[in-house]
Each structure stands twice: as structure tokens, then as C-alpha cells.
Amino acid sequence: MSTSHTDPVTLEVVELIGTVVARYHQEYEEAAASHSLTGAQARVLGLLTLEPTPMRKIAEKLKCEPSNVTGIIDRLESRGLVERRPDPADRRVKLAAPTDEGRDTARRLRESLRFAREPLGGLTDLERTLLRDLLLRMLGEETA
């Protein structure tokens, strides 16, 4: 059975997704500001805590120009939150990596994001898994 893209439930879901995204961005910006970071700086720092990354790849993940990432990394580096280091696999490539202080700042930032964590905490493991799988499906990605 095909569902119209303008049926009431679809329209309500689209509005709810927009509301969730807006609230998440607002809280993320406020949390970043409380650590004297811009939202973009906080996002880059968060990405780097997963693994040291070449700036070109950071730009791809954030869908922005590499020159923007260079400026963000410069500011994070001047605050002692990030360092540049050679890529062991290719010495010509520079990796951006968080310092200990950068990892600590990213952890405190994540811990201060209540909006996403608290409502999700009210869901059962099964509900969170279902929500994750539905979101991945909407994005055209395979479930884990």
C-alpha cells in the first residue's frame, strides 16, 4: 500500500523532525558557547575525538570547504584543544588530533547535551534500536 507524501501523518512526521533538529541545534550551539566554542568548532572537536583525521576528510564529513576547516583547526589549535601531526601512513598528510584538554572539553560538551540524551533515555532499548534503524533507513543506510 503506497502512502501519499502529503498524508497527515507524513506531514506531522516532517514537522516533528524539523522541530527535533531545531531544538538539537539550539542546545548544541548553547552547549558549545558555554565552552567558548562555536558550533562548528565543537562539531570538529567531536569528530576528532573519534579518530585523528585529515582536514580534507573533516571538510567532506561537514560538507564544507577545506579552507573553513583550516580556520577552525587553527582556532582550536591556538586554544590547545587540537594539534596537527603527520599521518604515519603518509607523512605528506597532516592529521588533526585532539589534545588531552580537547578530549576532556569534547566529553564535557557531550555530557551537557541533555536534549538528545534525556528523551532517548526514556525509551526502551528496543524503542531506541527501532528509532535508530528507521532513521538509518530514511537516510538510505544499512542497519548495523
UniProtKB/TrEMBL annotation:
<dbReference type="GO" id="GO:0006950">
    <property type="term" value="P:response to stress"/>
</dbReference>
<dbReference type="InterPro" id="IPR000835">
    <property type="entry name" value="HTH_MarR-typ"/>
</dbReference>
<dbReference type="GO" id="GO:0003677">
    <property type="term" value="F:DNA binding"/>
</dbReference>
<dbReference type="InterPro" id="IPR036390">
    <property type="entry name" value="WH_DNA-bd_sf"/>
</dbReference>
<keyword id="KW-0805">Transcription regulation</keyword>
<dbReference type="InterPro" id="IPR036388">
    <property type="entry name" value="WH-like_DNA-bd_sf"/>
</dbReference>
<dbReference type="InterPro" id="IPR023187">
    <property type="entry name" value="Tscrpt_reg_MarR-type_CS"/>
</dbReference>
<dbReference type="InterPro" id="IPR039422">
    <property type="entry name" value="MarR/SlyA-like"/>
</dbReference>
<protein>
    <submittedName>
        <fullName>MarR family transcriptional regulator</fullName>
    </submittedName>
</protein>
<feature type="domain" description="HTH marR-type">
    <location>
        <begin position="10"/>
        <end position="140"/>
    </location>
</feature>
<keyword id="KW-0804">Transcription</keyword>
<keyword id="KW-0238">DNA-binding</keyword>
<dbReference type="Pfam" id="PF01047">
    <property type="entry name" value="MarR"/>
</dbReference>
<dbReference type="GO" id="GO:0003700">
    <property type="term" value="F:DNA-binding transcription factor activity"/>
</dbReference>
